[in-house]
Amino acid sequence: MAANDGEEEATVSLVDVLEEDEELENEASAVLGGSDSEKCSYPEGYVKRQALYACNTCTPKGGEPAGICLACSYKCHEGHDLFELYTKRNFRCDCGNDKFGEMECKLFADKEKVNSGNKYSHNFFGLYCTCDRPYPDPEDEVPDEMIQCIVCEDWFHGRHLGCVVPDCVELQEMICESCMNKTPFLWSYAAHIAVPPMTKVSPCKGEEDVEVENDEEEKKIKNENPRSPVDEKVQVNGTSACKRKHQEEAEGSSEEGSCAGCRLREMKASGRSRTLQGAVFWLSAWRTKLCTCSNCKVLYTDAGVSFLMDEMDTVLAYENKGKSTMQAEQAGGAEGRDPLMSALNNLNRVQQLEIIHEYNDMKTELKDYLQRFAAEGKVVTPEDIRHFFEQQQSRKRRRANAGQYYCS
Predict the structure, then answer these.
(1) Fewer C-beta within 10 Å: the chain N or C terminus?
(2) How many CB atoms within 10 Å of residue 50?
């Protein structure tokens, strides 16, 4: 904190900036590391998962939606107004096809007119959530995180999910209410292997809100207030939505998963249920608990969610692949792309170790030095930074004069 005209202002230390920058760099590397920044992904067909962009300059709202790969965002759309779509599955790069008029892809010209297997949403026009708003939204004064549905891959404000967002959401996957309703058999799984729901239930006539933390408490509330689920409202973070009766739909296909040993059939037979509204958050490794009998495989395929059986479909798996690629390049496979790495690899082993040790020492000392300013609420000035590097030079000269040597 720093005083200014009698008022306190929040200041951010350079340590915070460095740490945040490092975190953002790691996140970006994880997302982009799984995609090729040099070659258009079109020849690979409908890529299992890749980083995608939409060009508001070439395909603005009112036209046809289109998506471009990472390499095309660099080479073909430099300087354009791009929407970052994070990652999407089973998509083929549209750059230069009929949706772009006379424009041709600079990286791969021989493309089909339309990629009929691609799926699009309002995300390709920079809009998200059930509120159909941009992100970041200059008119939204409510700080709220955005969470991606793993089925439709749209992004939702936490307050618009129709449920209380659980802690440690980054370790879980989420399926929005709309996608749950389109695949009603997932409600049976949700009763057993999803994060327990926490909602506030308030009847329409204005009775007091009651927080529901688990199925048993919800049943007790319903017994005390035998009102039809259709007549109830759900109050979540200040927003409300009428509950709909999904039970008949969820149990609609009585023969699905009817083969012996079907997990889904066993879950339905157990009689355990949960609130059939709001988004659903799933515990880690939940996909391994899905039934993979022949009938259920057909069920997933017909519903268009066969990817749920693939543990490598997850964004986490994709990001881990990106991190592995990044680490491999740092280990010596990126000399051609990174001038610093190239220069380092031209030095002998002793020189490499010395530079690496010097860099790590400087990074640690700089963070420790700046942390003192943060702890004391002082603002870092250019003079402070100059003083730090003068100290570094002085220490380096003292080490040199002391005659330090390294064995080869």
Answers:
(1) C
(2) 25
